Structures are given as structure tokens and as C-alpha cells.
Amino acid sequence: MKAQAKRQRIIAAAETVVSEKGLSESTISEIALAAGLSDSIIYKYFKGKEDIVFSIPGERKDDFLSLLDSHLQGIEDTASRLRKTIWFYLWYCESNPQYAKILYFDCFSSADFYQTPGYELIREYAKILVRCMEEGVKQGIFRSDVDLHLVRDMVLGLIGCEMISFLASKEIDAVVPDLDAIMLLTLGILAFPLNLEEFKSDRILNAAEKVFAENGFYKTRVAEIAKLAEVAEGTVYEYFGSKENLLLSISNRHFRKVIHDLPEVFEIKNPVRKLRRFTEYYFLPSLANGIF
User: Fold this and answer.
1) Dist. CA 256–CA 234, nearest whole Å
2) What pLDDT digit, counting tens, does each position of 170-224 carry?
């Protein structure tokens, strides 16, 4: 057997063993047994089990980047390219759960991993995200006053949260369906407001919610809300008519969001957890803002 074939066989065996038991509980002997090789052969190619595991992302690097590039071919719209780039990562990890589990629970949790060639795959993917956003800025599609590296880190963080929910807590059965939510938040930061009037209305509602929570309805003056929202007092009346209507609009906005997102609550299989999620989802935002 050629050296490269043996190396790949060892890495494939390690992926199976470590994804089941974790890096700390796995042994070289178990990996060697799964690969059909002796322990001594393993040490001819790798220094130890950490070296094998940290090599797994690097082994996938060329295929990962080549496949991503093929998916991006023909997509000219920058926002669509960004969406496809994020979708690809979610899809790839969802399609390769053993690899994803090792990446997030064994590689990312070790400071040593970030100094290995295996981390180069993540670094290259992060560069692709930033280049896509930079192109959007050049085209005038995305804002130029946003720290793109911070947005990149936010996207990677959101993906990480998805992976933990998918692989560890098992709260979700798939990660790709949450792409729309990730894009909504990402484009909400990058893109210019599409509707300036709606944007102003939201500012007034956000300010009203805060002032009502602090002062109570009867002690709140419309002028205070206008000042916090950075609009004229007359603008508040123009949008909402009265202080009473403004209070009702806060409740209506919250209720519309609940109705829109409610189906997601019931994706949970366990009925007790389903009820707990619904209770938390409906009441906690209101309690946090001092409405009840």
C-alpha cells in the first residue's frame, strides 16, 4: 500500500473512532485497529492522536475549496454569493457530521490546533467570506462603515452555535434551514436600510418600549420618546397618532413576530420541551423589557 493511501486510511479511521468517543477517550491502538494497521505504522506518519485529528480538516481542504468554488460559479449577485458561501459551509458540515463533530469539539477546543496546517481550511474560508463582503462594498451594495472582519466573526459564531445545537444538544435536526435567519441578521448589518420610513418607525417603537419600561405609561412624555428616537415630537404623532396607539403598536409588533416565528417552536419533538420553549419564547422578551 502506498504511503499516501495509508495516511488517508489512518485519517479516515481516526475520524470514525474520535467522532464516537472524543479525542481524550480515543487511543492510537483503537485508530490502528480501525485502519487495519499496527500501532507502529501510525507513528511513521503521525506524532500522536492529536496530530492525526488536527490533520483531518487539512486533508479536506482542497476538496472543500474546490467544491465551494464550483457552487459559486455563475453567481454574479454579491448578496447571493455571500448566501451561497454560508449555505455551503452549513450544508457541508450537516452532510459530514463526523467531521463537523471533530472540528467543533476536538479541534476548535484546543489552542494547539490553531497553529497547525489543519486550521488553514478555516482561515481560507474566512477570507472568502471577507472578499465577498468587500466586493459588496465596492459595488455600493453593502455599507462601507461596517467592520467586515467583525461581521465575518459574527457569521462564524452563528454557524458555531448552529453546530452545537445540531451536534451536541440535538435541539435541531438540521442546520441548513436556519440559513435565512443567519442571512437576515448578516444583511441587516451589511445592507443599507431598504425602507427609511419603516426604519424610522422601528426607531420610535424601540425608544418607546425603553421609555415606557423605565417610566411607566402615564409618566412618559412623547417628547422623551422623540428625543431618544432622534426624531421630532410631531413625527411620533404623524406615525402613531397618540401615546396610546404607540403603546398598542409595541404589543402588536411583538405579537406579529411571535405568530411569524411560532412554527419554529414546534419543531422540537419532546412535548415538555416544546411547552417550555413556547413559554420562554413568548414571555421572556416582554419580561426583559419590563412590559409585564
Assistant:
1) 26
2) 888 999 999 998 998 898 899 876 554 556 788 898 899 899 999 998 999 999 9
Residues 6+ apart with CB under 8 A from 195: none
Distances (CA, A) of 182 to 38, 71, 156, 188, 244: 46, 19, 10, 10, 35
- Tell me the angle at which helices 49-72 and 78-95 cross, rounded to the nearest 10 degrees: 140
| pTM (predicted TM-score) | 0.67
- Check if CATH label 1.10.357.10 holds for domain 196-288: yes
> In this structure, what C-alpha cell is assigned to residue 170?
440535538
CA distances (Å), origin 147, targets 143, 150, 153, 158: 10, 5, 10, 17
Domain 55-190 has CATH 2.140.10.10: no
Q: Cell 413559554 belongs to which residue? A: 279
Where in the chain are all domains bearing CATH 1.10.357.10? 55-190, 196-288
